[in-house]
Amino acid sequence: MAHRMQDKIVIITGASSGLGRATAELMTAEGARVVMADISQEAGEAAAQEIGADFVRTDVGNPAEVDALVSGTVARYGRLDVMCNNAGVHAAGPLLDTTNDDFERVVAVNFAGIFYGTRAAGRVMAEQGSGAIVNTASNGGYLPTEGMAVYCGTKAAVVAMSKACALELAPKGVRVNTISPGTMLSGMVPDVEGIVDVLDKLQPVGYAANPSQMATGILYLASDDANYVTGHDLIVDGGATAGRVALGV
């Protein structure tokens, strides 16, 4: 093991399952001290215990809770090296049936939550003169899907916001990047018979990824291997956004 994150202090939101949990596992294996944050107390505590990480229950849509997560981590460990703003919610449904509550819930987590985390971590990292922020977007920001207007809109917004933050924080020694995962077999996949086969066939590489394959992208952006990378969106989607595959006819 390379231990690329040895002794780094890392916060990961949305960490109780899926990509967040896979990232926590990988960061821990690479030597980091990980603080896992999630709105689910029971699932988060169980995951943290299994991985050997800390857990702080956090609603990322609440800026006060995000600030407390960051300040509490700094108070305990003295610094913050990496902030992975990963928490997100899936949303699908016809535009004309989308309620204000539906819209506000998705925006609060998928966009506002990432902004709050970037701001809170950015303040600490700018003061200490170093740090890396990795925000989770989606290839849905590039390839919008019918019936997912709000979800895709928030993911595209995360990329643009993160690039602007990267420009502002670069002179202060802070890197800000995003990862845009493609189809992933995580908790967001609907429990529908045959859905995995359908998702596999939609991927140019022939299969939908597992969260650990996406976590390696986050590790790269967070690590010193990417010390000259900022304002970048790393698309990890098995070629889905590269173009259309042949129909075979």
From TrEMBL:
Instruction: Spell out the CDD domains in the cross-references.
Output: SDR_c
List the Pfam families hit by this protein, alphabetically.
adh_short_C2 (PF13561)
Q: Where is the Ketoreductase domain?
A: 8-182
Please report the name of this protein according to its UniProt entry.
Answer: NADP-dependent 3-hydroxy acid dehydrogenase YdfG
Gene3D superfamilies, alphabetized: NAD(P)-binding Rossmann-like Domain
Q: Does the record's keyword annotation contain Signal?
A: no
* Keyword match Membrane: no
Note the InterPro entries from the entry: KR_dom, NAD(P)-bd_dom_sf, SDR_fam
- Record organism: Rhodococcus rhodochrous J3
Q: Which UniProt keywords apply?
A: Lipid metabolism, NAD, Oxidoreductase, Steroid metabolism
Protein family per UniProt:
Belongs to the short-chain dehydrogenases/reductases (SDR) family.
